[in-house]
Design brief:
Elements lengths: L1 H5 L3 H22 L10 H32 L8 E10 L2 E7 L3 H18 L8 H20 L3 H10 L1 H11 L4 E4 L2 E4 H31 L4 H6 L4 H18 L13
Antiparallel strand pairs: 1-2, 3-4
């Protein structure tokens, strides 16, 4: 009975639950009453914003509760990945594969624990485009969880680089006040930070993509478990590490790639 319960796609449910919440917010906004110009305003806008906050909080709390269930199902006495889900995806050694180990399960818990706090912290401070803000955060949570549970390198890349989109929007739209001079133009600090973040991430992503392509060409698969067992040349491993590090350092952000953060 326990094995049957553990065999359910809990990681997929956990990963995409926040995204479902984002779709609920979109649906709520689509069903709201609009004026003659097709714009939601007045009490109807307030209702949409209130619904967005409640839905975002409900789904982030729900994701946290699911993650607690996943943690309860995880057997710390066993080595390797658990709660593994795998299905054919793009072919050629690329699959939809999820799983957790003793490290990633803790990062999943940390992510789902922090997100409801983020929603509560922005409950009153975010006053413009509230529904868009909550959608961006829910999409970001799905992508962050996906990063920690992916067991396919290509799937990991999709989640990892996909997080650039909501992060770019959150920084660029709801970031800090103030202005910055850039190439002779005066820009809002948040826009300046978002552009710098985008450029840094783009460069780091190219290094990561090249490294992944080389690994795939050598091993013939993007399965992370299989890649762990593959005997890559020792000299190449150093360059692969540097390529992955360059991409990770920007998003952390780590010195000296952190300069976009103070302006955000």
């Amino acid at each position: 009975m326990v094995e049957s319960f553990a065999a359910q796609p809990w990681l997929s449910l956990l990963t995409f639950a926040p995204l479902i919440g984002a779709l609920f917010i979109v649906a709520s906004r689509m069903m709201a009453k609009k004026n003659d110009d097709g714009v939601i305003d007045g009490p109807d806008l307030e209702q949409v914003e209130r619904n967005a906050r409640i839905i975002a909080l409900a789904f982030t709390v729900g994701a946290f509760l699911i993650s607690l269930g996943v943690f309860a199902l995880y057997d710390s006495s066993l080595a390797g990945f658990q709660l593994v889900e795998e299905t054919a995806w793009l072919g050629g050694g690329i699959s939809y594969k999820l799983g957790v180990d003793g490290i990633s399960i803790l990062f999943v818990l940390l992510t789902t624990f922090i997100m409801p706090i983020c929603i509560l912290a922005s409950w009153d401070s975010i006053k413009s485009r509230v529904a868009d803000y909550m959608i961006a955060f829910l999409v970001l949570e799905t992508l962050m969880i996906g990063v920690f549970v992916s067991l396919d390198l290509f799937l990991f890349y999709v989640f990892f680089e996909g997080s650039l989109i909501p992060m770019f929007l959150i920084i660029g739209v709801w970031g800090s006040k103030g202005t910055k001079e850039f190439a002779g133009f005066t820009l809002p600090s948040r826009v300046y930070a978002a552009l710098k973040f985008f450029l840094y991430t783009l460069i780091g992503s190219l290094f990561l993509l090249v490294a992944m392509a080389w690994m795939y060409a050598q091993a013939g698969t993007t399965d992370i478990v299989a890649l762990q067992q593959f005997d890559f040349p020792a000299g190449a491993q150093k360059w692969l590490w540097l390529a992955f590090f360059a991409s990770f350092a920007v998003k952390m952000p780590m010195w000296p790639f952190h300069t976009w953060l103070p302006d955000a």
